[in-house]
Amino acid sequence: MQDTDARGSSPAFLRPQNGSSHRSSGYVAGRIAPLRPPPPSQSHAAAEFTSARQEARTRLPSLPVDQHRRQAEAARHKNTLICFAISSLSLFVALGIFLGIASKYAPDENCPDQNPRLKNWSPGKDPEKRVFIKKGDLFRLNSDATVHSIVIQDGGLLVFGDDKEGSKNITLRTRFILIKDGGMLHVGAEKCRYKSKATIILYGKSNEGADVPEFGKKFIGVGPEGTLELHGHQKLSWTLLSKTMYFSGLAYGHYTFKRNFSRGLNVRVIDQDTAEILEVLKFDTHEFAEESLKLQNLLKNGSPGRIVAIAVGDSAAKNLLEETRVTIQNLLGSKFVRGLSYRQAWAFVGVIGGGNSSCNESVRNYENHSTGGKALAQKEFFTVDGQKFVVRAYSEWNDGVPISGFQVEAVGGVILNLLDDVSSWAPGDRIVVASTDYSMYQTEEFTLLPCPECTKHQVKVKENPQFPHVGEIIDGVDMRAEVGVLTRNILIEGETENTCYREKECQFFNYDTFGGHIKIFKNFTSVHLSYVELKQMGQQQIGSYPVHFHLCGDVDEKGGYSFKTYLEGLSIHHCFSRCVTVHGTNGLLIKDTIGYDTLGHCFFTEDGIEQRNTFFHNLGLVTKPGTLLPTDRNSSMCIGIRDKVYGSYVPVPATDCMAVSTFWISHPNNHLINNAAAGSQDAGIWYLFHRVATGDSHSLGIETKSELTPLGIFYNNRVHSNFKAGLFIDKGVKTTNASVDDPREYLCLDNNAR
Q1: Which residues of 469-490 are buried (b: 16+ CB within 10 A; e: fewer)?
Q2: How far is the C-alpha of 592 from the C-alpha of 317, rounded, in Å?
Q3: Which residues neighbour 97 within 8 Å (Cβ) at sequence distance 6 or greater?
Q4: Which letter, b or e, does each residue of 320-338 get, where b requires 16 or more Cβ atoms within 10 Å of its Cβ?
Q5: Conformational region of residue 114, where left means phi above 0, alpha means psi within -120 to 50, and beta covers everything else
């Protein structure tokens, strides 16, 4: 218990004194007692007594001296406070500077590349070098490298170097990376995302070298006790259009016209707000004076601000009246029309009432059946939506042939209006805009341009759209196109050959389909991938997919993982075998991931035993046929691949195959929330339920009990642009091998399995 005196003095601990030293009355060893001032000394008491007697004898004369003493005491007290304040301020300033410098240079414990135990590692470029990173090897890769292969094991660690400015650009080329037995590969971390550009290129052909057991070739593999942590710069994965994106970037499309021997003045009147062509006219002012009067009336009655484009075809001067020339000069601002002569090429673009400052024109003289090139006039304008467009007019004689024409098209990029804040997208990023037609092949890719005039809900693209993409809710139906960004600052890419070289695949594809793949096995230590781009990944062979969780069992808390295993914000595009394969794995979270332009089922649960997996806000589009399973195949593949049927049986495409789906869900106890299936050769989402476990899980003897299991969460998913159906909850697959009794291939569609 702490005691304080009446004045609130701070308590002090009085320690017991040693030996026979004097103890003050009332002392208790170890007790807390208030501080008291020491008793006055004898000399000080005598001085006070003498002073008191003097004060009694001469009270009045002593007052000024006493007052002076008090003033001096006050001054000393004030100076002490000032000194204390200055000292304290100096201390805090110095401490702040020290802490600021320390924080600037102190390593961030959340950033794997700032581990002080790491050693800089530069293996160089040697395609024959086989690297083993083992116990005691803690490496930071800071430069480009090419090696044959990398095995990280026994506590070995490989980290990609980074900096605060994100200025590094590191490319690692290798045939494979195998992480196992305590090995770790880190590129960034969830709490310290990678800022620079990191690229892992997996190279090699299918017929080069031997397979690594269980993994094959050209892979990043995670075995038992392996760690793979890849975390790129966080950005919005995908959103929706908020306004329709028009064909060519203009609401009424682009306009092109070219004609030979169109004598007179060819005229186009264009709406300045929309770039719509309002009038398509020709006035033969060479032959008829009344045509000149018609043109004059058109201009006088035209709305101010309307765009007028004029091009001479053949000749227009003979009966072009002077008053018409003056009207063109005054209303449109032309300087050349007054002097227009026989067969002279003239092109003009201007604005009614705009004067000379708002027009552009060109003339070329006719000589020896030619004008020596085009008279070209062009001027740029903006629609009310801010879209820049150009109007061109041209006129020429070429080897005795008069040519005239017009163009109206968007220039300087096309602005897209989007539902969400896309300020995390950057110039140079590639984006994909989904089809809003019946055909998925109206999906388009674009490159982002700098756009200082854009809001945070807008981007500008370099290419002009070839198809319209709806950005509206029409009659209560949400028709808005999905828009996803494909670019990430961590890229894993399979290096491919220029042409197809594997005979089996070359029957159906005219390009190399032997990409890289990521394969994760059971009992890994930690696997989390976020905001990573995977390009040219997957192979047209069983087990080699862009991302493949292979018989991993429970990968969430139920499996003993303190942090749920997840894939977030991945961009998987232009790949050769699926997007994400969940195989004998439960509790995986797949979130904000894009699967675009891939072969075979995209988001794929394989054996019919996969449960508790969550597919949240993923986008799949342009899911094309592949060769792996009968359900992946189109008609020609179905008939052409017969090595696993019995005897001479010829598969029936409509009933055996043709079921490729963006989401292939083989057990009901999985969750689909806020996903978009925006274009597949057959189906958007297909639920089918296996009677028994299939594939590698068949030998485990696990009962699926699909027909007795409640459906997991299915909420707010959208499907469109799928050839066969948006959503199927039907059928099953054949779970017996081909035989004389049933010659169909194992895992083909089975209409009887319901």
Answers
A1: bbbeeeeeeebbbbbbbbbbbb
A2: 65
A3: none
A4: bbeebbebbbebbbbebbe
A5: alpha
Residue with tokens 């169109």: 262
Say if residues 430 and 485 touch (Cβ distance below 8 Å).
yes
Q: Which residue has the tokens 């409509």?
A: 654
For the chain, count helices (H), then strands (E): 7, 52
Could you give the CA distance from residue 505 to residue 512 in angstroms, rounded to a whole number? 8
pLDDT grade for 95, boundaries at 50, 70 and 90: low
Q: Name the strand (E) or helix (H) holding 661.
A: strand 661-665
- Exposure of 519 by Cβ count < 10 A (0-12 exposed, 13-18 middle, 19+ buried)? buried
Residue with tokens 């909420």: 715
The CA-atom distances, in angstroms, between 330 and each of 93, 304, 326, 350 are 72, 13, 6, 12
Report the b/e string of 699-735 with b at 16+ CB within 10 A.
Answer: eeeeebebeeeeebebeebbbbbbeebebbeebbbbb
Single-letter amino acid code for the residue at 139 = F
Q: What is the 3-state secondary structure (H, E, C) of 14-48?
A: CCCCCCCCCCCCCCCCCCEEECCCCCCCHHHHHHH
Mean pLDDT is lowest, of 264-268, 588-592, 598-602, 750-754, for 750-754
Q: How far is CA 334 from the centre of its chain?
A: 49
What is the SS3 assignment for 123? coil
Mean pLDDT of the chain: 90
